[in-house]
Known about the structure:
Helix content: over 70%
Structural class: mainly alpha
Shape: globular
Number of strands: 0
Number of helices: 14
Amino acid sequence: MGIRLVYVALCLAWMAASASAQAPGIPEDLQGRVSLAGELNELSGVKQGLAKWKEMLLSQDPTAGSETKETEKFKAAWRDAVEKQFDAVAIDGGMRSAIANELTKEELTHALTFEKSKLGRRLTAAALKSASTPKKANPVRELQRQIRLLDQAAKRLARRPQRAAVIAELVEETDALNAQVETTMGISRGTAVGSLAVQPKGRPRVTGPELDALLELQRIQVIKAFSATMSATFEQIYASISTKDLASYVAWLKTPMAHKITATRNKAFIDSISTVSEKIGANFTKAIDAVDI
């Protein structure tokens, strides 16, 4: 859902430790950039975003489409694999390092300046509010509620072409569609590894290249699905932000420095989720003593 929904916060303990002492073996300039990247993650809500993606992974059903009769056993094994492999602190740390390796101190400071601005804080607050789910919410009713909100957002944009144009630019400049598709595909691969593992023994095994080909076909459908709703999603998220302020955000995103910052942070998140999803699939396969693909 764009940079503010894909990113999440921090490890306070790590921040405190890095502030008090330089880690051995890490150049001082790099350690400083890692600290700035951590602050950037914290301000933009990376912690909350990771929690949402973990929820999505936990909800995946590795037995979908299989012929297994041990559904609950495999679902439990999948959830256990997610809990073991999805380490939010480690993921956040990996993102910080990846971002710090690509961005200069000047670029990180530039990003932090925007995040700390009045508009930056309002954008983050709106995104986090939109992503929040009431405790003990009924999954079916929550999905129905989200669909209603998207429908209402789409109708608002249809009545406001100027705002619709700004929202469309915002989607493009945050590269939100690509980020959402690539992250979803990373999760799909991990789930696919799990699904293939529960096929009855003796069945022909799908090879790695064959799995990649199947996922590429799925990618086409995923792109279509997200393309149809991305603008409405952004309108739902930023309904409380004026068109003028959103245009200001777009103008900032279009600058060369902001463009590099966005691309770097998106890649760090996509790579992290894709890696952990494959680890979950491999852990699940090993746990049920299945033949690896």
